[in-house]
């Protein structure tokens, strides 16, 4: 992936247009002031699923130990400083029944100290805690759900525990219940007075597209939302997500902005399904899609190469760009090379030259004109993965206005 910055600032007319766009976006966004850039952190689901067998597998089961361990890794291995702050519990954390007062309670064997103690610990390490609920009779894994009548009580419970993010899933609920419950939870979370980032799975349960999904409304009530199916530990799964997001980018791209993000699901880098180049590709694609960077991998045993990809500073800086404009696929070549572009602040752009070919590394040549860059200026180009940078002047050498780049993401 490359970042190209144009020397010189925006022309004044552009600056004005941008300011207007920002004001409009603000008026429409959820006003809890959170997630001004895509949330970053760790989420248990893809890697650890609903493994509750702590007797046979104490290291990997969904228990407080797993979250204490991951909090330590986030705090001690350089993640927190890079912005990976959220440590998020997913399904299967609770007891199979609510308590006598109708309150959700964690499984007493697996979370003996309770969620409040875990939250306190996470906070003491400079991190934030996320939790999972489901707007329905049951969670997807069969644990007690948050039916519409329980929304306020559960919001209060999460706030009392000191939770900082809620993922609200949508299994076992009807279209009508979702239409009532998701906005109701937004209000209930705000009413607690605790800042809680709100992640909604609602659109994923309604096909992810208008007219069933109203992205204007979503931006008003949710900080992020799952649009599409679950990621699995495979390259096919990553590609199917990228294909769906690209096919529908005209709808999805304008929906994202500071405080409200599309969520193509977790980063699976560090697990078993992706090669090194595929891992780099997922990181670049999620970055340019302005996606939340929620890793789901075992940070206790992660390989140095996966860690290096996830800890790439320039990549994270691009993902966290303050303008918060989601990128788009701008070129789709017949020979299986695609180009993605994300506009960044300070007149910079992030570009991905993405080869989906399966034969061999491929030399891709393109032009500034094709990528819609004016050729009357000097560019500073930086390769995000190698770190090398160079100046590019389209008129030098004369007659050769071609930007020749070697595809980075060949498999
Ligand atoms: C759904 C969600 C996943 C995960 C599981 C938990 O499938 O989309 O991300 O939360 O439920 O059961």
UniProtKB/TrEMBL annotation:
<dbReference type="GO" id="GO:0009311">
    <property type="term" value="P:oligosaccharide metabolic process"/>
</dbReference>
<dbReference type="GO" id="GO:0016020">
    <property type="term" value="C:membrane"/>
</dbReference>
<comment type="function">
    <text>Removes terminal alpha-N-acetylgalactosamine residues from glycolipids and glycopeptides. Required for the breakdown of glycolipids.</text>
</comment>
<feature type="signal peptide">
    <location>
        <begin position="1"/>
        <end position="29"/>
    </location>
</feature>
<dbReference type="GO" id="GO:0008456">
    <property type="term" value="F:alpha-N-acetylgalactosaminidase activity"/>
</dbReference>
<dbReference type="InterPro" id="IPR000111">
    <property type="entry name" value="Glyco_hydro_27/36_CS"/>
</dbReference>
<dbReference type="GO" id="GO:0019377">
    <property type="term" value="P:glycolipid catabolic process"/>
</dbReference>
<comment type="subunit">
    <text>Homodimer.</text>
</comment>
<protein>
    <recommendedName>
        <fullName>Alpha-galactosidase</fullName>
        <ecNumber>3.2.1.-</ecNumber>
    </recommendedName>
</protein>
<feature type="domain" description="Alpha galactosidase A C-terminal">
    <location>
        <begin position="324"/>
        <end position="386"/>
    </location>
</feature>
<dbReference type="InterPro" id="IPR013780">
    <property type="entry name" value="Glyco_hydro_b"/>
</dbReference>
<keyword id="KW-1015">Disulfide bond</keyword>
<comment type="similarity">
    <text>Belongs to the glycosyl hydrolase 27 family.</text>
</comment>
<keyword id="KW-0378">Hydrolase</keyword>
<dbReference type="Pfam" id="PF16499">
    <property type="entry name" value="Melibiase_2"/>
</dbReference>
<dbReference type="Pfam" id="PF17450">
    <property type="entry name" value="Melibiase_2_C"/>
</dbReference>
<dbReference type="GO" id="GO:0016139">
    <property type="term" value="P:glycoside catabolic process"/>
</dbReference>
<keyword id="KW-0458">Lysosome</keyword>
<keyword id="KW-0732">Signal</keyword>
<dbReference type="GO" id="GO:0004557">
    <property type="term" value="F:alpha-galactosidase activity"/>
</dbReference>
<dbReference type="InterPro" id="IPR017853">
    <property type="entry name" value="GH"/>
</dbReference>
<dbReference type="GO" id="GO:0005764">
    <property type="term" value="C:lysosome"/>
</dbReference>
<dbReference type="InterPro" id="IPR035373">
    <property type="entry name" value="Melibiase/NAGA_C"/>
</dbReference>
<keyword id="KW-0326">Glycosidase</keyword>
<dbReference type="InterPro" id="IPR013785">
    <property type="entry name" value="Aldolase_TIM"/>
</dbReference>
<keyword id="KW-0325">Glycoprotein</keyword>
<keyword id="KW-0443">Lipid metabolism</keyword>
<dbReference type="InterPro" id="IPR002241">
    <property type="entry name" value="Glyco_hydro_27"/>
</dbReference>
